[in-house]
């Protein structure tokens, strides 16, 4: 039976009894039987949450005509939430690797990161234009603008944008420099930037715009969805970082803590 399964995994179309398995289907079944069903479910949940929350907020902003706060929310949620989240997910997507290969996957990862930062900058620009207009007309910015910048929503959003910029710059540097520290900095900056952006979005649900557009129960669902998004999207990157930490640890350290090195066959 084992030899038969091995032959089936190597052939594009193989018949086992009355069941026809192609290469992709066999890999999917093997992933389930190898104990990776949990990761598959987490990825599906993460994709669903990202798309559902992103589309819901973007649609509401489009209905409002992308004016003032709606424009700000539209570009920020598409860039710093949806695009950056998808960039983190796609980097660890097992099925995309099988379909398009690692080089194409890395290109998609980089493109989503660039789009996320670009859209995030466009989302912040309306607020900057508002502050500059007040400065030009009255010689100072209003207290409301200053308070908005100093809120948890504003501070987390700016921090998320800056961390995403750092992730983008380190990613561009990795195209020409292969360095472990730089690679780790890129991953940690990206994960931290996404975390700050989610926190900013969480606090944004307490704003007047959110309370005007959605009911209290809907806002609670958005908050729960944002919390679940952090957990599911960060799951793959945190697991990968933990695995790399163990891999880089010296053998003299692994022995006392009970971690055995995998034997090569």
UniProtKB/TrEMBL annotation:
Keyword DNA-binding on entry: no
Species of provenance: Drosophila pseudoobscura pseudoobscura
A cellular-component GO term for this protein: membrane
Subcellular localization, as worded in the UniProt entry: Membrane
Protein name, per record: Cytochrome b561 domain-containing protein
CDD domains: Cyt_b561
Domain Cytochrome b561, chain residue ranges per copy: 71-205
This protein's UniProt keywords: Electron transport, Membrane, Transmembrane, Transmembrane helix, Transport
Main location: membrane
InterPro entries reported for this sequence: Cyt_b561/ferric_Rdtase_TM
UniProt keyword annotation of Membrane present: yes
């Amino acid at each position: 039976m084992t030899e038969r399964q091995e032959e089936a995994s190597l052939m594009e179309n193989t018949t086992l009894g009355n069941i026809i398995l192609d290469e992709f289907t066999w890999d999917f079944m093997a992933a389930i039987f190898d104990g990776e069903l949990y990761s598959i479910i987490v990825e599906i949940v993460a994709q669903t949450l990202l798309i559902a929350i992103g589309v819901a907020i973007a649609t509401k902003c489009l209905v409002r005509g992308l004016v003032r706060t709606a424009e700000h929310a539209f570009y920020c949620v598409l860039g710093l939430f949806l695009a950056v989240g998808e960039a983190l997910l796609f980097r660890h997507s097992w099925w995309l690797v099988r379909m398009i290969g690692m080089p194409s996957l890395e290109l998609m990862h980089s493109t989503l990161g660039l789009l996320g930062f670009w859209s995030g900058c466009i989302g912040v620009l309306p607020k900057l234009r508002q502050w500059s207009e007040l400065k030009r007309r009255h010689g100072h910015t209003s207290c409301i603008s200053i308070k908005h910048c100093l809120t948890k929503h504003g501070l987390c959003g700016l921090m998320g944008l800056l961390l995403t910029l750092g992730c983008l710059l380190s990613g561009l540097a990795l195209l020409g420099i292969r360095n472990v520290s730089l690679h780790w900095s890129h991953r940690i900056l990206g994960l931290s930037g996404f975390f700050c952006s989610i926190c900013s979005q969480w606090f944004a649900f307490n704003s007047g715009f959110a309370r005007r557009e959605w009911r209290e129960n809907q806002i609670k669902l958005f908050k729960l969805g944002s919390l679940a998004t952090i957990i599911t999207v960060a799951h793959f990157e945190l697991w990968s970082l933990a695995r790399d930490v163990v891999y880089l640890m010296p053998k003299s350290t692994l022995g006392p803590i009970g971690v055995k090195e995998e034997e090569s066959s």
